[in-house]
Amino acid sequence: MRPSATYRVQLRPEFTFADAADRIPYLRRLGVGALYASPVLDATPGSTHGYDVIDPTRARPELGGEDARRDLAKRLRDAGLGFVVDIVPNHMAVEVAKANPWWWDVLRHGPGSAHADYFDVDWRRGRVLLPVLGDDADVAELRVDGDELVYYEHRFPIAPGTGEGSPQEVHARQHYELVGWRRGNAELNYRRFFDITTLAAVRVELPDVFHATHGEVLRWVAEGDVTGLRVDHPDGLADPGGYMRMLRAGAPEAWLVVEKILHPGEDLPQSWPVDGTTGYDALREITGLFVDPDGEAPLTELARSLGQPVDYHEVEDRARRLVTDRILVAEVHRIAALVRGVEPEAAQGAVAETMVAFPVYRSYLPEGEANWAAAIAAARAARPDLTEAIDALDFQVREDPHGELATRIQQTSGMVVAKGTEDTTFYRYTRFAALNEVGGSPNDFGASVDAFHAMAAAREAGWPGAMTTLTTHDTKRSEDVRARLAVLSEVPGEFAAAVRRWTARHGIDEPSLNLLAWQTLVGAWPITPERLRDYLDKAAKESKLRTTWTDHDEEFERAVAAWPDEVLGDADLAAEVEAFVARVREPGWSNSLAQKLIQLTAPGVPDVYQGTELWDFSLVDPDNRRPVDYALRAALLEEIEGGWLPPVDSSGAAKLLVVHRALTLRRDSPELFTGYRRLHAEGPAAAHVVAFERTGLVTVATRLPVGLAEGGGWRGTVLPLPAGEWTDAITGTAVTGELSEMLARYPVALLVRGES
To answer: CA nearest 116: which of 208, 217, 214?
Structure first.
């Protein structure tokens, strides 16, 4: 059941099923069509996100358990709202081994466990390696406690009949081997989620495993409690298409969207029986509208002058090679061992080179064959010395596109691309951080209006039920931070001069992080030293240039940690930053309102991430999981419902007005939100407006507001409207095509035929 729009909430022990249920009256008034929840199955104790599932057969007790889940579902149903649940088919958490009953049983009984096939373990290589030891020689710290082997806070089961002797002797007889944590990347013999050894991959391609892991959620769907499902990380699955077909068979009427990251120009596999993606493609298209292409050269020169590499493809290539050579070594070795007739070293090189060369996350052979062919061709060109090995790899994969070799290299290529590009390159190539977003391409400096309209029309024609988004729990920065940063492309000279001055006073001794830090300070201002410190610590480690999560440069980390206090404590510099923010703040608000209205009214099903109905200047997780002040939002909404038209100011109430009007109209008059036609403005400022018609509805949004103001405003520019009388649903006033009048109060308008 496709909702009119969704509202994403992050459930956690501090925000439970009952807390979500208490927000239903507010969400109904806001205009939402469905509550969209983060994972609700039982997760690692204390988890703040829920993606570390430990038991998929029950609702999470820390959220209130089954009774509270049922109550939430009933209250949503009574309010006429749908319930969309995030599911995690790719992996389960094994960090606390005893908390996961299936994993515990596998460790106790080994290949003889009833759940041995549930996890993607390479039993051919012997015992399960558990990289938990501080040092391989640290087994002296082992002790036996009843039928458990204990290493500090870690507990592991002792197999029946093997508990006699010293802890070391007992350890040697188990179905698992405790090893040093550094051995995980190179020797691990179970598939994991990216490089996270505490998240073990699950084999949902097997029907019995699928039903065991999905039975409870599909029961909720069958009983009408859940109306939609969001599928996390499908690219890690052995057979994403087959999985989607099993899921659709179990939930024939549900709205299904998948977290498939599409690169520019890439399409969702047409054989998947789903409604679309979770919307990162729409985020990229919409954000690009507000980036001025004239800002590219000055911002590139700023990055170059500060010592940052500006060849994007070179930076990305190095980052991906770091992943194959140091982080996912175990995965490369496991895949290479399947290549017949090739020496191990050559096979490993061929596998790594091919995954580095992928133009998209993965192929889905036979679908996506062109992407596979492109990766093979690029690998051959980069490593002619490995031609024979690459040819052998290519032949075997094409010979059996559903075999183990083809399966493993396809499900691992996405890990290389995501880890190498999103989680590394995006923190190294920081020329213009507004573009460094999931599904984005920082090398493409914005998007044309023509390209946006073409993609919006294509979505309406092919995937009208796809989700669209501007902020998620995984975005590197919130929509309002990006909207403000987009203004920098309109004032690149001013920003470059400011950054050079600021760097001379308090620069960070690593060019990429230095430039990212100043953009972050401007984009998220005002920000506390604590939030900025946490963000920069994560950014420094993700870039893997001067320090990492595992190999620390403590002196550098101390310098980074001290930077926020140094900058914010420098009164003169802080005043300069504040003055610059004042220069871009109002254009940033304009961009925020414009991109939000476009997202809420364009083809697709829009999602509003928790709290972003007001200005929200959050950074990457966990910053974006901070508590939301719903009392404030409810109070402002009550004033808006009473007829208040708030000013565009720091309160963010103007954004709440736009969200409320668009969502309510979308829910109550769905017939207006069909079809798609581009509208053209005429006049000297025509390039500063984006407009389109649905069916009896017209969206109008301002773009590049600094250039508009510097050019003298609208200056008689008009938007010829389709026949009929038109009223702005945001302000309730009748309008003509004169943009100076239509957009006098707000930089956006939502027009409907007749009286509002």
So the answer is: 208
Dist CA 307 CA 295 (whole Å): 19
Asked, for residue 618, whether it belongs to a domain, the answer is no
> Domain containing 130 — which CATH number?
3.30.1590.10
The domain total for the chain is 3
**230 — phi, psi (to 5°)?**
-110, 125
Examine the domain organization and report whether 358 and 419 are in the same domain: yes
Residue 269 lies in domain: 6-90+204-278
Instruction: Tokens 């476009």: give the residue.
Output: 598
In DSSP notation, 730-754 reads: TT--EE-SBHHHHTSSSSEEEEEES
**184: pLDDT confidence band, cut at 50, 70 and 90?**
confident
Last residue of a domain, one of 427, 449, 468: 427
Q: Pick the last residue of a domain from 166, 186, 201.
A: 201
* Co-location of 193 and 146 in the same domain: yes
Supply 246's token pair. 């099993």
Which residue reads 């009392």 in tokens?
631
Q: What is the rounded (10 degree) CA torsion for 46, 48, 50, 55? A: 0
Query: Partners of 477 in the beta sheet?
Result: 619
**334 phi and psi angles, rounded to 5 deg:** -65, -40
Digit-coded pLDDT (tens) for 271-283: 999 999 999 999 9
Identify each DSSP E strand in 73-182 by its residue range: 82-87, 91-93, 128-133, 142-145, 148-151, 154-157, 176-180
Domain shared by 319 and 421, yes or no? yes
- Among 175, 176, 229, 232, smallest CA distance to 204 is for 232
**Among candidate residues 555, 508, 462, 597, the one with its CA nearest the CA of residue 5:** 597
For residue range 468-497, list pLDDT tens digits in order. 999 999 999 999 999 999 999 999 999 999
Give domain status of residue 136, yes or no: yes
Tokens of 45: 């104790």
Report cis status (omega within 30 of 0) of the bond before 234: no
Task: With CA atoms as reference, report the closest residue to 39 among 261, 203, 223, 226.
Answer: 226
**Euclidean distance between CA atoms 48 and 58, whole angstroms:** 18
The answer to whether residue 264 is domain-embedded is: yes
CB-CB contact of 65 with 58 (8 Å):
yes
Residues for the chain: how many in total?
756
For residues 418 and 400, give the distance between their C-alpha atoms in angstroms, rounded to a whole number. Answer: 26
Structure tokens at 527: 């920000």
Question: Tens of pLDDT along 395-414?
Answer: 999 999 999 999 999 999 99
Pairing of strands 82-87, 276-277: unpaired
Q: Give the DSSP letter of residue 291.
A: -
- Tens digit of pLDDT for each residue in 492-527? 999 999 999 999 999 999 999 999 999 999 999 999
Residues 416 and 321 reside in one and the same domain:
yes
User: Are 606 and 464 in contact, with CB atoms under 8 Å apart?
Assistant: no
**Buried (b) or exposed (e) across 414-428, using 16+ Cβ within 10 A?**
bbbbbbbbbbbbbbb
How far apart, in whole angstroms, are the C-alpha atoms of residue 267 and residue 212?
Answer: 31
Same domain, 136 and 210: no
- Same domain? For 77 and 219 the reply is yes
- Contact in structure between 665 and 729 (CB atoms under 8 Å): yes
What the block records as the tokens of 112 is 């003889």
Residue 37 is which amino acid? A
pLDDT for the residue 519: 98
pTM of the model: 0.97
> Is 512 part of a structural domain of the chain?
no
Same domain, 197 and 214: no
Strand ranges, E, within 227-386: 228-231, 255-258, 276-277
Strands 154-157 and 34-37: what pairing?
unpaired
